[in-house]
Structures are given as structure tokens and as C-alpha cells.
């Protein structure tokens, strides 16, 4: 199904510069789509360190299980991603398809299958015939080139309407390092693990253990703080690789995530993760508006996040945003159903800068016109103070439109 | 906003016969709507016993708080319900409006305000001027007549497209008793407490304590097992009154819900609650299909219900149903995200009688045509066996259509 590009898309996608130590290739393997690429390989010149966070679904896909198995090894020589088929709920044949894919890449690169990582995205429950694209895969491993980021971002898209890329730089002990990242999302986006794929590579030299700590912390306020439809996929995967190529020479690998030398890198990484997460929300299926929801005054940061997600996932809040209706009563409803401590009679709610509710009732200065003007914007900030403590959290979502229903009522057929 | 009647509505609403001991009156008080009734009073000739279950929202409406306060008294002489304004998140003025309403009814009936129960449904956060309809209310208490059930069901509607009524009879110690019930629902329907109003009256003679036990148990598999959009209102209220009028004479009041004499009554009551709950789902905003989801093989009945509700609340499952797409992969996704024990490789899924997934993969005999035929029906049964135990639960929901978005994107304005 074809859709026009999301009105919330960046004006134009930015391509990324090459990053030392990684090469990329893509191909049209015809897994499901016609006339577009659907297979992507990243090849690391030398073993990269690796970290990953995966879906909390109890019915994970075969590639997720495969990655979990390889992750303790802490080294990666290749990443293979396909779109069009999620290889999820495909039983023993699914595990075999994952193994065939990894074996093929390993043979082409002369490495072990345990050094290969995989991700698949697309339809669930359809058997995936990996042998059908194994031939292409062998060639790809040899064809990979440094300048392939835009192609990679395009090859992993499913119902995405635009490719998602972001880059940052940072200094570690005086050496400039790069971070390049791509993501795909669109439907089934919800925290724990924002139902999407994202792959980030840096040329810094950081141990797998430190990478894992950085990534696990980094997703909390970014990929785990976005939601499109509260649905969690079987395939959510965020991986972070470090090639170490920028640090060649004297510098020792950084072993510890708390190393002071990583402060700037960590900030740049988290900023990149947030950038990609926002791009995913902005491409939410049928989205016309982005919504940032901040809850403060909660009993804890965790409580604040639960309340914020309750607001973000409420179909009634999301349809009100779609209708540009400043219906703060539905925000009250969503706060009330979250099950976290809140003081109804101290509740304050703002739409943008307009306080619409104060101390448990409609703001005495409430102006329908002022609130309506906020709702016409393409990004809407909703702030709620629940009046019981100092906990705070921000999450992001999009509106729920008729197009969401249209896209998802006709996705598989 | 006007909508045509839900295609899932009963062919024609059945009016209910009078029930001894209760009289009903309605009026058009102009609270919000024009050209229709919006105020309903039930008057009990003698003090009725009473039970209630209410929203678990932490931001409950003023009438919910008022009822909770009166419930321990265990006696009711009147019930006053208005539509158009929920009197929720209205601060101290909201509590005052509830008190004025109750005081007015109490004065007209010569009883205490603590014998009056209230419910309000409609917009949240708008101040409700009870004094504006207090005049009508005084008159109504005198005008009440036994034959007012259809009028009552109509007066409490908001976005409902049809009135919801049900009646049952049962024998208690050889005496036939009646149970009459009405409900309203449509949006914000989700368990804990299926975001709706329902009022049930029987002429049996049963203590408040026993009534409460019956009602609390009865809602579990009925009103607490339906969901339209996962949103929980601030006003959910189900009340059960017993006038005792059928039992005049020698029979003693039944004190205990476990009394064998109540077996038939209990079955009839639960059946009536299920009937009303289903009528609420069938009038889900924008609903075109009803979906019954049964989960079995779970670790416990409670786990089964959590999984079933995860499927029922998944926007991706609900849009697939709307699109008549037999997309069982989304059912797998919803099972996986429920967080309850499930054996992915033992999962079986049926759409109607068609097994679409077996032992963790697509059924070897899967037929797209057979599954598609099931999806064309107006009521769709989805059964999932998660393969770990004997827990079982059934819940009901409806599809998610463009009309849901249209109705809720334009409700308040």
C-alpha cells in the first residue's frame, strides 16, 4: 500500500557521512515488496563491540532470539536486516531461516555465525524462505561500501513514509568520534521496546559491557518513551555497535560506561536516540500531529511515566488531538485510569502555555479560543501536574486519525 | 452530533414491564441536549436495599463520591441520573451540585439525602448548574409512574445510538421475582468499571450485603469483561436495587448471597448483566462488528483475562477486524505483549471454527479463504490457547473504525 509522506516528516532526510570501520550494501530480494530494496547488510572491517535491547514480548521473533543468543559474545562482524517478513511466529522453520541467513553471511565473510546479528520486520506468521535470498546475501557482503546509510535506512522501511537517519559527533579524550544511526517504525510502536528497529554505529572504541550500559540507559527516555498505538511488536530491536576505528593508535578501549571521558559521547548518543525516536513518532501511521506529554508532581519518575503513557495511549485523547479539540476532560480521565497516585483537587493541566485546568476544575481564566489555537499547531505540548510529589517524565505520541484505521485495516491484504 | 443506529443493535429495543415498588419519571431539563430527555428519576415506594460498583478511576466524578458515601447506609428511596454533563472534575462546586440534586429529591420525597443515589454522564470538566434543573426534579418525583423503563433508558443516553434494556425472571422459594435493568455506554468503555452506567432493580427481598456480593461477583464476567477503547471513565456506575415487593408476606429477607434459594436468581441476574454488557459493546462508538475473545490454557483465569483484554484492546487487532483481515499475527503480538505466561511454540489460534495457527506457526491446513469468510461475519469469535495451564476467560469488544475517530474527534464541539 502506498501512502504519501507524513506531514510531520523532516523537510528532507539527511544522508550520513561514511563511518570508519563499517560498510553497507542493500538489495531488492523480493521478499515481499516489488520495486524496492528489502535486504541490508552492514559489514564490520574488524570485530565491533556490540550492545542490544529487544522486545519484551513473550512471543519474540526468531531473529530476536538469535541476537539474544549471540550478544554475550560481545563481537559483531555483520548485521543482516530484511523487511517484508518479520520471521516471527514461524516455529522451528523460523529458527532455521535465521540460522541459514547468518550462516550465509558468515561464509561470505569468513567469520562465525555467532558474530552475525539479524533483524526482520514485516508480516508476522508467514514462513520466511531464507534460501531464496541467500544468493543475494553472499554477493552483498562483498559489495558493501562505506557510503550506504541512506540506502540502509530505506531498505529497512515497512509502512514508514520516510527514511530515518541521524548523526552526531563527540570528543572522547580529545579525539572526535562519530555516531551514525538509522531507524524504522510506523506501526506497533510502544515502549518496552518501542516496536521498531534501530541500528547505531560509532567509531569510538568502547567495550561491549560499557556499550550495553549506555544503550540500556539511553533507550529509557527515548525509544521507551514513545508510543503510537500501545502495541508492542515481536521484533523490536535497538543495537549499538562500536568499530573503534576513530581511536586507532595509543588510546585504550573504554571499559566503563561511567568513565568521565564518555560524558560528551553519552550526551550525543542519547540525543541521537531521541532524534530517531521522534522521527519514528512523526511517522506514526496516519499521524498528523505530534504530541509531547509531560507529567510532573508525581510520586516518582516511574509513576509520572505510567501516567504520561496512560494519556499518550488513550484513544479518546488521541482522537481529540486529531479533531483539534482541547478536550482536557479526557486528559483527566486518562490520569484517573493510570492507577498512580494523583490529587484530583490539585490537578493542573496545560495545553501549550494555556492552563486549562487549575486545582481540580476548569481554569477560571479558561478561554476556548486560546486553547483551540494551541490545538491547531502541528506539535502539541500537554503538561499535567498531578500534585503529589516531584516525579517527572516526558513521552511522545501522535494523534489517532482515520488514516491510522485505513492503513491498518488493509495492511496485510 | 447525530449518528445512525449501530448495525449491531437489537432489531428493536424491548420495553420492560412495570416492576413492583419502583416508579420512574423523565424530563427534558436542557442540561446540554435539545429536544430530548436528559433527567431521570427512579422513586422507591418503600426503602429499597442497594448495592453498587464504581469506577476505579482516581479522579472520580462528584456523583460517584456521593454514592460511595451513601452506600454503607444500605437503603435507597430515589435514584437521580442526568446526561449531558458528567459533573466530573468540577471541584467543590461539583460536590455542591451533587448535594443540591440529592437535597431537592429528598425534600420532594420527604426522605433524607443519604437515601438518594446519583449518577451523571456526559462532558467532563464543565461546571454543572444543578439549580437549573432542581425545579423539574421536584415535580418529577411526584410524577413518577411504574411504566417508565424505556423512557429511563433513553434519558440516560449520550453517544449511545439505541436504548439498552433487559429483563429476567427467576423463582426464589417458589415465588416469581422480576429483574429489570437499563444501561448506557458507547465510549470510554473498559473494565474496572466498564465506563458506563447501569441500573438494575428487582422486586426480590434481599439484604444489601447479599446484593453487594452478587453484584460484585456478577460484574466480573460481564461489565468488567467488555472494552471498547480501553479508556475508563470517571463516572462508571452499576447499581442494583431490591424493592422486596414480590415477597410481601411470610418470606424473610434473604441475608446471604450464598443462600441456595438464590441460585436461580443469581443465574438470571448474571445473565441480565451479560445481556446489558453486550448491548453496550454492540453500541461501541463506530462499531461494525462484535468480537468475542476467549483465552484458554493460561496459567490462571486472571492471566487469561489479562491476555484476552490485551487482544481486545489492541488497536492493530481491532483495525484488522474492521478491515475483515484475518491477521492472526497481530493476535500473536497482543498475546506476547500481555506480559503473562504463554508458550509461543504451543500457541493455537482460531478465528471462528477455523484454526489459523497451530503449535507456534501457521496452521498447515490454513486457508485464507476460510479465514476471510469468518471475518465477514458481524460477530467474530477469536480463541487463543496459550498452552501453559487451565486458566480461561472470555471478553468482548468491537472493531475500531474510521467512525470511532470521527465520533471522538468531534464529540465536545
Condensed summary:
The structure is a homodimer of 413-residue chains. Chain A has 413 residues and is of the alpha+beta class. Chain A has helices at residues 62-70, 91-109, 131-143, 149-155, 208-220, 263-282, 301-313, 315-322, 328-337, 368-375, 402-408; strands at 22-27, 39-54, 75-85, 116-123, 164-172, 175-184, 197-202, 237-242, 290-298, 348-351, 354-358, 361-362, 379-385, 391-398.
Q: Can you describe what's shown?
A:
The structure is a homodimer of 413-residue chains. The first copy, chain A, folds into 2 domains: 261 residues, L-amino peptidase D-ALA esterase/amidase; 119 residues, ArgJ beta chain, C-terminal domain (Ubiquitin-like (UB roll)). Chain A contains 11 helices and 14 strands. In chain A, the strands form 2 sheets. In chain A, strands 1, 2, 3, 4, 5, 6, 7 and 8 form an 8-stranded mixed beta sheet that branches. A 6-stranded mixed beta sheet of chain A has the order 12-11-10-13-9-14. Chain A starts with 21 loop residues before the first strand and ends in a 5-residue tail after the last helix. About 1% of the residues of chain A have low confidence.
Amino acid at each position: 500500500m502506498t501512502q504519501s509522506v507524513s506531514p510531520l516528516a523532516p523537510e528532507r532526510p539527511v544522508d550520513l557521512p561514511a563511518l570508519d570501520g563499517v560498510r553497507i550494501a542493500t538489495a531488492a530480494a523480493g521478499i515481499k515488496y516489488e520495486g524496492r530494496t528489502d535486504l541490508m547488510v552492514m559489514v564490520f572491517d574488524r570485530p565491533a563491540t556490540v550492545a542490544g535491547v529487544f522486545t519484551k514480548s513473550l512471543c519474540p521473533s526468531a531473529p530476536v532470539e538469535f541476537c539474544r543468543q549471540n550478544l554475550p559474545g560481545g563481537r559483531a562482524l555483520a548485521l543482516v536486516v530484511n523487511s517484508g517478513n518479520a520471521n516471527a511466529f514461524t516455529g522451528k522453520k523460523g529458527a532455521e531461516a535465521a540460522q541459514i541467513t547468518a550462516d550465509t553471511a558468515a561464509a561470505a565473510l569468513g567469520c562465525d555465525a555467532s558474530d552475525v546479528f539479524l533483524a526482520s520486520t514485516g508480516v508476522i506468521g508467514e514462513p520466511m524462505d531464507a534460501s531464496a535470498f541467500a544468493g543475494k546475501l553472499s554477493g552483498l557482503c562483498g559489495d558493501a561500501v562505506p557510503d550506504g546509510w541512506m540506502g540502509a535506512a530505506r531498505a529497512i522501511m515497512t509502512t514508514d513514509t520516510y527514511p530515518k537517519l541521524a548523526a552526531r559527533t563527540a570528543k572522547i579524550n580529545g579525539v572526535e568520534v562519530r555516531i551514525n544511526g538509522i531507524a524504522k517504525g510506523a506501526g506497533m510502536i510502544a515502549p518496552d521496546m518501542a516496536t521498531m528497529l534501530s541500528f547505531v554505529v560509532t567509531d569510538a572504541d568502547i567495550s561491549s559491557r560499557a556499550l550495553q550500559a549506555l544503550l540500556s540507559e539511553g533507550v529509557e527516555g527515548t525509544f521507551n518513551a514513545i508510543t503510537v498505538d500501545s502495541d508492542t511488536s515481536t521484533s523490536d530491536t535497538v543495537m549499538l555497535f562500536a568499530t573503534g576505528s576513530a581511536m586507532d593508535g595509543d588510546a585504550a578501549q573504554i571499559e566503563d560506561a561511567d568513565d568521565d571521558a564518555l560524558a560528551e559521547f553519552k550526551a550525543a548518543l542519547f540525543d541521537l536516540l531521541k532524534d530517531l525516536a521522534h522521527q519514528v513518532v512523526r511517522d506514526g501511521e496516519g499521524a498528523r500531529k505530534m504530541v509531547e506529554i509531560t507529567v510532573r508532581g508525581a510520586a516518582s519518575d516511574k509513576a509520572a511515566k505510567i501516567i504520561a503513557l496512560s494519556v499518550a495511549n488513550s484513544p479518546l485523547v488521541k482522537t481529540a488531538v486529531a479533531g483539534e479539540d482541547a478536550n482536557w476532560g479526557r486528559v483527566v480521565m486518562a490520569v484517573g485510569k493510570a492507577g498512580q497516585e494523583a490529587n484530583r483537587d490539585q490537578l493542573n493541566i496545560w495545553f501549550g502555555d494555556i492552563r486549562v485546568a487549575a486545582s481540580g476544575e476548569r481554569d477560571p481564566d479558561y478561554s476556548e479560543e486560546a486553547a483551540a489555537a494551541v490545538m491547531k499547531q502541528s506539535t502539541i505540548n500537554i503538561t499535567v501536574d498531578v500534585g503529589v510529589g516531584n516525579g517527572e517524565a516526558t513521552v511522545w505520541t501522535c494523534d489517532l486519525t482515520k488514516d491510522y484505521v485505513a492503513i491498518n485495516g488493509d495492511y496485510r491484504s
